[in-house]
Amino acid sequence: MPRTSDPSPQAGSGSLAARTFESMGTVISLTLAQDPLAGGQQRYDELSAAAAVVERVFRELDRTFSLYRPDSEASRLARGDLTLRRASDAMRERYAEAHEWRLRTEGAFTPERADGVLDLSGLIKGHAIREAGMSLLSLGQLDWCLNAGGDVLATGSPQPGTRTPWKAGIVDPANRKALITAYPLAGGTHSAALATSGSAERGEHIWRQQGTEPEFVQVSVAAANILTADVLATAIMAGGTRTLNLAATTWDVEVLAVRQDGSMLATPGFRS
């Protein structure tokens, strides 16, 4: 999965502390840049509180939207025990958001599997990161990086008070121990989010037209917000070059796509 590197803090610039947990079938990692002058207990309590808020957001959404939990609302919809008309406001809101993205991507992104079952997996992790990020900001946390299975949202800097960006590494799909590149997020940059989708990135929510072969093995999208990055990475994986061109001309994003033969397509931000 894409990894977020932790730049070594400089003297007086802050210290980095991280917590991880598992949810939605992946590993969630929260890294805070903290005041090195604060006491150890204060920094521990701050990290614990922030991590608890993030974990609660993910677990609550997983209980509602996971198709791997037989008791979830999503599973009840899939079995026909519940109709969308009678579903919760949260479910209907996310479906409406997914449907809007289907229209905007000309069908490349879809909230339904080939068998017609509603599956919001292509959107719900990005939504969880978005909600968790808003919760962190409400706690007064301004310098952090949140990585959920390779989808990354960052704000501030690993060196608080500077314009130094966080770095999100994009793994080579042909060699999971190597990086293709590292992309700067937050700090003094335009992009705050990076999402990667592909055959090795839990791609079961990518639905292509029947009989079509995948053009890309991995797609990374950098954007100002995590949901746009997450949805477009999934859509480009499904729709190929046509959808990549649509994304690059419609949204203010940067895209790096790896073809089956290992060659790449990249917008200018990934080539600089």
Structural write-up:
By secondary structure, this protein is an alpha+beta fold. It has one domain: ApbE-like domains (T-fold, Roll). The protein contains 7 helices and 11 strands. It has an 8-stranded antiparallel beta sheet. Helix 4 (121-138) runs antiparallel to helix 5 (226-239) and helix 5 runs antiparallel to helix 6. The longest helix has 26 residues, at 40-65. The protein is globular, with a radius of gyration of 19 Å.
Question: What features would you highlight for this structure?
Answer:
272 residues; alpha+beta; 11 strands; disordered N terminus; 3-stranded antiparallel sheet
Quick description:
This protein is of the alpha+beta class and 272 residues long.
> How much of the residues is beta strand, in percent?
25-35%
Number of helices: 7
Order of helices and strands: EEEHHHHEEEEEEHHEEH
CATH architecture: Roll
Radius of gyration: 19 Å
Mean pLDDT: 88
Might you state the CATH topology name?
A: T-fold
CATH homology superfamily: ApbE-like domains
Q: Strands of the largest sheet, in order across it? A: 2-3-4-5-8-9-10-11
Give the low-pLDDT segments: 1-12
Tally of discrete structural domains: 1
Q: Structural class of the secondary structure composition?
A: alpha+beta
Distance between the termini: 23 Å
Top-tier CATH class: Alpha Beta
Helix content: 25-40%
Number of strands: 11
Largest sheet, in brief, is: 8 strands, antiparallel
Shape field:
globular
